[in-house]
Every structure is written in structure tokens, then in C-alpha cells.
């Protein structure tokens, strides 16, 4: 049966070719010579082929459509290989690559930004240490305080926390009375640093109280207490120091018991009052001892009237 079919097909094709060759050029269209046994679907206008070609070119395939493909309704190679999910997967794959590239680019930018912030902080610390002109040092220190207050580079500040505290401590211990404003600005930087890096607050407060107890100069001790007050004021009622406030109050109570100058007394009381406002439950355990010390200063007739009024 297959052999007969092949022979019949070959004879039919040969007959068609003979008729085509026998006709003169330009005498009529090709489909006029097709035999009567050929299905009507074969006589398809050339526009249909053009549409099919364009459809396959859009799909990215160069395969030429055959007559039988159109006549018997077979799908073209482009239609067979162009399901909807292929385009979706390709788009997702492309989007995934784009997202991955964007993520890597952001990481690179973050690393560059972190390096830039570290360089800026290191530059500020170096300038404030080496600058000879008082006004320029003060301006640089204000830039440092602004850098700390933004809080956008906490990782950088934690990495260089020891260096920053050491630099500020050197300024606090300056001996020139002409640099008092500069030293107060440095104390404000320490307090602000403690507030911004609240998760490092315990470390910074311990550093402050250790420096206070080891210092032999009352004016430097006063600056350490100024730094503590600035930190407590900046934290305010946000309760950022709740986990360490008992430690802070204990150290302030010890300082209050041992101060021997009106200036240190008043500054330590300012810190304790800030604790009393924001953490009254912590201050309540030290209330009696604090009142006893203040009464002792109040009844001391050798003290200035201004101090007696403040203590009262």
C-alpha cells in the first residue's frame, strides 16, 4: 500500500511539472495548471504565504512554510516552539539577571560609600588634632558633631569609636584656657556620640566615669560630667538608656558623694535631675542619699549664696 502511494505521488508530481514546463512564460498564473484532483485548499492566495512568513520571522525562525502545512492545518515550526510560558520564563530570567546585577551594583556602591564615610571621619579627626588655628579647629569640630548627629554612618563610627574617643579626650585635656569653647564642643560630641550609638551607650558611659575618676583636674572632670548631661538630655524620654540607667545613677551618686567643689556639685546634680525626670523609678532608690548630701551642702554657711539657693 505504501509502495502504491509513493508511486502515485511521484507520477502526479511529474505530470504537474510537465504541464508547467509546457506553458509559455507570462501566459497565466501557476495555479491554473494544477490538476483537478488537488484539494481546493492548495489554491491559497500569495498573501496568506506572506502573512505566514511574517509570523514566522517575528518568532525568529527562518523555516519556509510548505503547501501541505497550510493546506492540512499543520502548525508551523514557529507556532510549535512558541508557547506562552517560554516567553514568560525568558522575561523572568532576564529580569532576574537584571535584578542580580542591580543588587551587586548597590553592594559595590555601599562599599564605596562606607569607605568614603570612613575617610571623611578619619580626615575630620586628623584635622581637629593637628590644626594650629583655634578658629579652624573649632569649625572642624563642629563639622565632626554634625557628622555624628546625622547618624547615617553608625557602622563607620563604631569601627572608629576608640579613635574618636581618644581624639576627643585629648581635646578635653587641653591646658590652654583659650580653648575652653573648643573643649566644651568636644564634650558635646562625646555626649551626642553616646546618644546616637545607643547600643554602645554602656561602653561610652563606663569610659566617661573611668576617665572622670582617673583625672586630677577639676575642669576636666567638669567636662566629663557635661558630656554625660548632654547624652542624657539628647536621649530624653525615649528611654534609650533604660538598660544601663541603674549603672549611670550609681556612678552619679558616687560622684555626688565625693565632689568637693561647687562647680562639680552643680554639674553632677544637673545629671541626676535629668535621670529623675526621665527615669524616676531608677532615681527613687537613690532619693534619700541624694537629699542627705544636698542638705549637707545647703547648711554649709561657708558656701556662696548662689550655691545655697541652687541646692535648695
Any idea what the radius of gyration is? Answer: 44 Å
Give the mean pLDDT: 76
Contiguous runs where pLDDT drops below 50 for at least 5 residues = 1-8, 29-52, 54-73, 85-93
* Largest sheet: number of strands, sense, barrel closure: none
Structural class of the helix and strand makeup? Answer: mainly alpha
Gross geometry: globular
Strand content: under 5%
Describe this structure in words.
By secondary structure, the protein is mainly α. Helices cover 73% and strands 0% of the residues. The protein contains 16 helices and no strands. It has helices at residues 2-22, 46-59, 67-71, 77-80, 84-130, 134-150, 154-159, 161-172, 180-196, 201-214, 218-235, 245-258, 262-278, 280-283, 287-298, 305-311. The chain is globular, with a radius of gyration of 44 Å. InterPro entries: ARM-like, ARM-type_fold, SMG1_N. This is Serine/threonine-protein kinase smg1. Keywords: Kinase, Transferase. GO terms for molecular function: kinase activity. Residues 10-112 form the Serine/threonine-protein kinase SMG1 N-terminal domain.
How would you concisely characterize the structure shown here?
By secondary structure, the chain is an all-alpha fold.
Amino acid at each position: 500500500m505504501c509502495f502504491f502511494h509513493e508511486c502515485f505521488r511521484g507520477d502526479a508530481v511529474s505530470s504537474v511539472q510537465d504541464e508547467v514546463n509546457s506553458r509559455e512564460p507570462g501566459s497565466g498564473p501557476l495555479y491554473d495548471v494544477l490538476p483537478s484532483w488537488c484539494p481546493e485548499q492548495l489554491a491559497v492566495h500569495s498573501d496568506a504565504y506572506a502573512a505566514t512568513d511574517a509570523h514566522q520571522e517575528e518568532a525568529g525562525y527562518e523555516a519556509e512554510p510548505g503547501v501541505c502545512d497550510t493546506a492540512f492545518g499543520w502548525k508551523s515550526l514557529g507556532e510549535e516552539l512558541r508557547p506562552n510560558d517560554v516567553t514568560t520564563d525568558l522575561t523572568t530570567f532576564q529580569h532576574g539577571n537584571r535584578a542580580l546585577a542591580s543588587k551587586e551594583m548597590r553592594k559595590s556602591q555601599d562599599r564605596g560609600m562606607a569607605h568614603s564615610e570612613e575617610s571623611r571621619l578619619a580626615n575630620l579627626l586628623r584635622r581637629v588634632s593637628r590644626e594650629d588655628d583655634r578658629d579652624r579647629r573649632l569649625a572642624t569640630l563642629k563639622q565632626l558633631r554634625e557628622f555624628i548627629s546625622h547618624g547615617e554612618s553608625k557602622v563607620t563610627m563604631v569601627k572608629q569609636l576608640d579613635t574618636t574617643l581618644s581624639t576627643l579626650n585629648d581635646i578635653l585635656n587641653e591646658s590652654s584656657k583659650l580653648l575652653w569653647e573648643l573643649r566644651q564642643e568636644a564634650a558635646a560630641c562625646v555626649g551626642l556620640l553616646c546618644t546616637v550609638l545607643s547600643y554602645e551607650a554602656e561602653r561610652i558611659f563606663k569610659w566617661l566615669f573611668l576617665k572622670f575618676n582617673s583625672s586630677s583636674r577639676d575642669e576636666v572632670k567638669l567636662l566629663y560630667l557635661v558630656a554625660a548631661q548632654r547624652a542624657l538630655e539628647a536621649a530624653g524620654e525615649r528611654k534609650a538608656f533604660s538598660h544601663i540607667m541603674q549603672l549611670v545613677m550609681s556612678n552619679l551618686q558616687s560622684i555626688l558623694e565625693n565632689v568637693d567643689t561647687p562647680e562639680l556639685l552643680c554639674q553632677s546634680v544637673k545629671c541626676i535631675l535629668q535621670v529623675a525626670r526621665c527615669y524616676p523609678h531608677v532615681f527613687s532608690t537613690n532619693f534619700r542619699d541624694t537629699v542627705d548630701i544636698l542638705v549637707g551642702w545647703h547648711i554649709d554657711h561657708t558656701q556662696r549664696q548662689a550655691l545655697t539657693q541652687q541646692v535648695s
